[in-house]
Automatic annotation (TrEMBL):
ATP binds at K535. It is found in: Membrane. This is Receptor-like serine/threonine-protein kinase. Belongs to the protein kinase superfamily. Ser/Thr protein kinase family.
Amino acid sequence: MASVILGILLILVPLPLSTEAQTSGNLTLGKSLTANDQNSSLLSPSGEFAFGFRKMGQGAHLLAIWFEMIEEKTIVWSANGDNLAPEGSKVQLTANRGLVLTDPRGRELWSSNLTATGLAYAAMLDTGNFILASASHVNLWDSFSRPTDTILPTQQLDLGAKLNARYSEMNYSAGRFLFTLQNDGNLVLYATPTPLVASDSYWDTNTTTGFQLIFNQSGQIYLTGRNGTTLKMITEDPVPTSGYYQRAILEYDGVFRQYIHPKMANSSSGRLIGWSRVSYPVPPNICMSTSQDIGSGACGFNSYCTLGDDLRPRCQCPPGYTLLDSTNEMNGCIQDFAPQNCNGSRRETDQFDLREMPNTNWPQSDYEHSAAQTEDWCREACLADCFCAVAIFGDGICWKKKIPLSNGRKDPGEIGKALIKVRIHNTTSKCTGNDQKKNKNTTLMIIGSVLLSSSVFVNLLLLLITYLLYRSFRSRDSKLLRPVQINQVTGTRTFTYHELQEATYGFKEELGRGAFGTVYKGALGSEDVDFVAVKVLATRTGESEKEFEREVSAIGQTNHKNLVQLLGFCDEGQHRLVVYEFMSNGTLADFLFGSSRPSWYKRVEIACDVARGLSYLHEECTRHIIHCDIKPQNILLDGSLTAKISDLGLAKLLMANQTRTTTGVRGTRGYLAPEWFRNMPISSKVDIYSFGILLVELICCRKNYEPKAEIEAQIVMADWVYNCYYDGSVLQLVEGDEEASSDIKRVKRFVMTALWCVQEDPALRPTMKKITQMLEGAVEVPVPPVSSSFISSI
């Protein structure tokens, strides 16, 4: 009887249509929703939940369920995370298979695979459950029974049910973490989606009679037996439920967390406060919990896990290693040097060194150990062993580890010291233009020697041939040598102009333009999903020629998750184009200064992302790079909102033993360091000044210069930030930002770091590496000195 009443209510309750093509009521047989810019959706009776398409970057859509009445539109269920739907796709309700998702060409992308008969309609319920039901309102299929990574109040997991973490924060394809109520009654977390043995688990309830995992309306999550008794409380802390939305999720980092979100706007700010974590995460420290016999552990192979201040795991690469996938730090690392030669006569022991990492270990990766030894003995033993990638020394025991390293963690609880083997001089690069020149000179020397031993006639003939060969080499150099050298240096793909013209549909969709050219959106391949950004330089001479050389040589030699990746270039006739990875979420300027305030914790991540990228440019590249134009417009955001530095075209390249250079003024006013205007030598400290201004903007969520500010003292944000810090009123900077206000200790640390960055004297500004440590809380931030530029504002 209750189901009949519910069905009648779903049909009768009227809701207005919104500007986003939202529909109230039910979806009947033959009806469909279309993936387009309006994000067409079906609302629940209260309007709190929606089912339909969410746009995931340009031209890609996710069929999902989400919270409709909050700013974040948080997704709680998705259908096609592994196969996003292009623009124009539709999901239709069919009699024989239920929901069927097809692309514009009619190819099936996903279906509900309904096997029951008698389907009449689909409905979005106020619980967050999406159902397919018969005319008599019998539930034939529902999303609650097929969860993805999230559960909601009133939802339960039965025996055999599972949650699968997504790939990354904004990538809804399946990741590698699994939360399941096994048929044996044990509730288990696995670091692999296809566990083979129980030892693959990193957390479990150790129960044999478990029957259901229940998430009740009071916010409690607990495991029950068949008789209804509570076997295990998963969240034990009291949870505020009145006036709050709730959800619990197995996040992409492998940790199960519970969150709440207020339903009403905050009265002081007029904004909705974001999701807040309640109770302790499960497990509390995944870095120390994982120790698998098979698999990589909490992070990917060859990386290590640390626990951040927010209790989130962070995956990082050890010295000498770089991320395998720059878009996902949890995918592991690879060596960026050639491994040690195992040839018995050439072991290269003098070509390697050991880098120290205290409190670090990779359990389960060892293949040999020796007791009662000294650290010096351990070092020599690893250097002499070509299979040894890392040695762990502690308590007089030397453990040798081999590639791939697994279960990496850095934690005060680890008493050992890791000794990472790295090549002193990277010899992985292949021959370059110098080798070509050497080969060419060798050829000419051989011809010359032949001349000396030949008859006069033959000598004259060979002399003519030599001259022609020389002209040929010169001609070839002028036409081909530059592109070949660039291609060898960068290892990128060379495109023809015609290929890029087709990829951009005749340079149709403009993404942006600058002083040296225009950027267009393109797609490589026939499926229109591998999007790229193609920058067309205006002309072939003057500054644009320098720009082309700078961008290709600078970006092509960089490899870091927080730098926009160069994919290729075109150098054909008068056409010069550069092809970059496409950044689906646009610029930081659009993200930061838009109509809604981004999450404080996302701004924190962006600040750290930019700092890491700059630290790499300044200190880790073979040729140190000064960007010269750090500003929000040159920071781009990918699909997971990871920040990446773009537009290295204004960079000054320095050799590793250089620290300063002189140049004309470059960059954008408002972010320029004082030395640009004083004819002083320019160093990497100009980027640090610009980063300080950017950090101020991230803290306050406002542009540094606001001439229309109501309060005169707030026109120049950097000055106002210093005044607030000097007066002890840092809280004013984040007034109305509940997340930041509750994290005031970190806000103050960021403010102090920013003030160090914008010191007038370049020598007082810290290095980018030190700034990164300050932001991450790895080192204490000393009290910044009073800069002369601020004295007048105190």
